[in-house]
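**User:**
My hope is that you can spare some time for a protein that puzzles me. This is the protein in question:
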Amino acid sequence: MSQILTFLGKGGSGRTTVAIAAAKQQASLGRRVLFVSQDPTPATGILLGVPLTDKPQSIGANLEVVLISATVAIERGWEDVKQIEARYLRSPILRNVYGQELAIIPGMDSAIALNALRQYDASGKYDTIVYDGTGDLTTLRMAGMGDSLSWYLRRFVAVVEESDLWRTVAPIMQPALAAVLTLAWTGESVMSQPMQEANNFFTQSQAAIGNPQRVVGYLVTTDDPAAVATAKYLWGSAQQSGLSIGGLILNRDAVVDNVGTEFDPLVVTALPTRIGTDWQSLIDAMPDFSQVLSVPKPIAIDILKREVRLYLPGFDKTQVKLTQSGPEVTIEAGDQRRNILLPPPLKGASVTGAKFQAGYLIISF
């Protein structure tokens, strides 16, 4: 399994430069590295010194680079979708629809990128994958996609199963579906084998995102006030996605004393300004990405104290909204929502109090 690194920050703060330096540093340590870009413009290729393609290419010892092309990826992915459909339907209906016909719709890029990262990770060819995405809320929503899709699946399945319509038609649907599906269906649940497999995949994806030994993000900023404010906002937003933030990288000779104190307890690393083609000064100043992280977990549940603690740095109580629906609690912070499925000892318990303290939202039951 690979360690996946990604970098978050305001546009123009030097995220891509930092990501390239990190990839070069990891490669110099003897780790097999893949640098993944989602930028179709020539800019990243110019920094790397080679035009990017949709197939990994070597640009040095232990270092490969690749471009995630949405159009190419959707063609490949569509063939996988048709194979999955053929596993469950006796007469597949998508076989006459071709990937070359499909248009890229908003949000599809994130799903494509997430799937590509999953495949590169599963290949076993790389020790480190450096993902140079948009570095903003789009990247964070991609990180939280597994959790979000799992919630949609289980929530709407529950709604259907509790409906009077489902109770009425379920007994007579079994013969009809048996003629269409290649698997047995008991009629007792909407959560059939394909849906259960999908939910398992979403759950496993989110478990990987929530493990800082597998996936970790770093904030990148200069001493520009707008860049600092954006980094703080993305820090809190990352917690909503379950992505651990491993540290803060101050780029372009930013003064640590002026900025770093605002991001306590993150480890702060200062980088010099890159001059020309000099990458070595940045490589030498990079943090140790292999160190064990001691940053606060995005969420912690204490059953004995009947508390849920969410770490939401960068936000205050006016920016956080809490709602409860059945066994789940929804937290809205910034422009993101997170649905927390309570463990059995707290399931059904009502929220008795909530307070915002030292960057933590503490919910009592």
